[in-house]
Write a structure and sequence with these properties.
The protein has 155 residues and is of the alpha/beta class. The protein has a single domain, classed as Rossmann fold (3-Layer(aba) Sandwich), CATH 3.40.50. It is built from four helices and seven strands; from the N terminus they run αβαβαββαβββ. It has helices spanning 2-11, 18-29, 48-58, 94-99; strands spanning 13-15, 36-41, 73-77, 82-87, 110-115, 129-135, 141-145. A seven-stranded mixed β-sheet has the order 1-7-6-2-5-4-3. β4, α4 and β5 (110-115) form a beta-alpha-beta unit. α2 crosses α3. It is globular, with a radius of gyration of 14 Å.
């Protein structure tokens, strides 16, 4: 199962609905190592929060998951681990991420999902898992593992 979802994400997955995007993320949650940072890249409206909603379900979170744009960070306790959901859209650099003192909230086992990770790229750990989310010409959504020096080659 691990290689199946990871292989699919390396090749790129196209989803036809928000529910399919959530299901893909739920499947990924089942194989994520503990204490993983998941960096979700993509423009406004590509489904980053939708993806985190599926991730949350896969981690056993039962409460509603919405974008933490105005709070910056929300914490959700799941059945298997803590999900920290960070929206870095309003952060300008790694120093602002450090000022949030996230490490104080991340009690193992956890998963940190970061929207707009490029805003705090220098703060992200080398082992972060990077995904690119987008919208295809036909309007369907795409999710693909990002390659290239991000320390996520083991994904």
């Amino acid at each position: 199962m691990v290689s199946s979802i990871c292989d699919r994400l390396r090749a790129g997955v196209t989803t036809a609905s928000a529910d399919e995007t959530r299901e893909l993320a739920r499947e990924l949650a089942a194989v994520l190592p503990v204490d993983t940072v998941l960096a979700l890249h993509g423009t406004l409206g590509v489904g980053k929060t939708t993806f985190v909603q599926g991730l949350a379900r896969g981690l056993g979170v039962t409460e509603a998951v919405t974008s933490p744009t105005f709070n910056l960070l929300t914490l959700h306790k799941g059945g298997t681990r803590l999900l920290a959901h960070l929206d870095a859209y309003r952060l300008n650099d790694a120093r602002e991420a450090e000022a949030l003192m996230l490490e104080d909230f991340l009690v193992s086992p956890w998963c940190l999902a970061v929207e707009w990770p490029e805003n705090i790229a220098a703060w992200l750990p080398a082992g972060a898992w990077h995904l690119d989310l987008g919208i295809a010409v036909d309007g369907r959504h795409t999710v693909r593992q990002r390659y290239g020096g991000n320390g996520n080659e083991s994904f």
